[in-house]
């Protein structure tokens, strides 16, 4: 069993060693008093792969004794000064739950002890006028011993300021201003482990190196920069998807789409003989994730529509039937997602993505002029979108047109993602085109959601009728979704007209 919490903290180099290195912060912002807490002796053994894959992605895994939170701790980076700490009880081996949450980073490589860090910690609490703890100020005297071949020992002192839950993050800036005046500067190491590895001569982590031969500010550099960002995002989202956190599946699925689209749109930059197999695997993963995501969207959509109905229009055990339907479909979807993330195929995909970044299959245009190469890629995707929109508009309203509009929606996403890659090179013109196309995609997406909801509501109505229940409410919701889909179709010509304005494309065509 695991527990998690967010921690927001900054690390500093104290001006002097010992407790005398803790400055008085009374009067800084809302800090009304500073109280001392008992000192602690902490003993932590950090685990990582032989080539330090966790620390390379700013994650750490440790088994710590001493202090109030003894146990296993997996720390995952979030944003800014905040990290998530996932805790598990003490045990001799790395808990399975934490191994799984680290899997996208380790990719199945064996976890072993790499550093032992022992700290003597002096703690002070920063309190407000009512005595509530706002933050914890800690001074650690640290002794680190490498457990890797050829590593040594290092000793240092470290000052840490960690906010209590609910404290405004602005307090960190105020505290830092005071610390700077006392000669205390920010640490250049993001964690104790990173510093221990560096100072004991054990290495710094298995970062994917920047490949040789990539010209700065070239199509190759822009495309690889985008891919690097999206691969990092895919890896970082994995633990959230495994825990079924809100929106995590959706965000990972979108990341797969972005990666696929980039590899497709910029075939003039990266050789498709290498990238097409990766695109196929990304499509597989997105498909596995899509089952859970589609069910999540339907559940929320139908549930919200049902809640908004007046009581006199809800006939029969509608809420109960919806719950049974969701549980029967949702459980299978979540199981399928987790099985995909545990499959060797998924780990091979992560290996392949790293391989593209490490040794990219660059083509001749990768080192050419970005304005020409990248604009051509965006305009090519736009041409496909325009063709699909024209085809959809030529069809009569009905299932065939709904399918054509769905294909146009997918084409609109490809234009947007191609524009995202090109934005650092092409600036505002491509950003404006992407913004207009996003509006088209939004209308098409609302239409598709209504079409899919109609199918689900019809099935729910048929099942209710077969069970001897009233199908009135399901029919009512079905009618509303049908009307909504028709409204989106009426809205679409104006939105597409704005996105297809030739003036938008003109800067990219010259």
Provide an overview of this structure.
The structure is a single chain. With 510 residues, the chain is of the alpha+beta class. It has 2 domains: 3-199, Beta Barrel (Hypothetical Protein Pfu-838710-001), CATH 2.40.320; 219-509, CHAD domain (Alpha solenoid), CATH 1.40.20.10. It has 15 helices and 10 strands. The chain has helices at 53-56, 96-101, 103-106, 170-181, 192-199, 219-242, 248-265, 272-308, 318-342, 344-358, 370-393, 399-426, 428-466, 472-499, 502-509, and strands at residues 3-13, 33-36, 40-48, 60-65, 71-77, 82-88, 112-127, 133-146, 153-163, 185-186. It has an 8-stranded antiparallel barrel. α13 packs across α15 (502-509). The termini are far apart.
Helicity range: 40-55%
The proportion of strand residues reads 15-25%
Shape: globular
- Order of neighbouring strands in the sheet with most strands: 1-6-5-4-3-7-8-9
Number of domains: 2
Order of helices and strands: EEEHEEEHHEEEHEHHHHHHHHHHH
Give the CATH architecture of the largest domain: Alpha solenoid
CATH class of the largest domain: Mainly Alpha
CATH homologous superfamily identity of the largest domain? CHAD domain
Indicate the CATH topology of the largest domain.
CHAD domain
- Unreliable stretches covering 5 or more consecutive residues: none
Count of DSSP-assigned helices = 15
Rg calc: 27 Å
Average pLDDT score: 93
Task: Report the end-to-end length measured between terminal Cα atoms.
Answer: 60 Å
The count of strands amounts to 10
Helix/strand/pairing class, anyone? alpha+beta
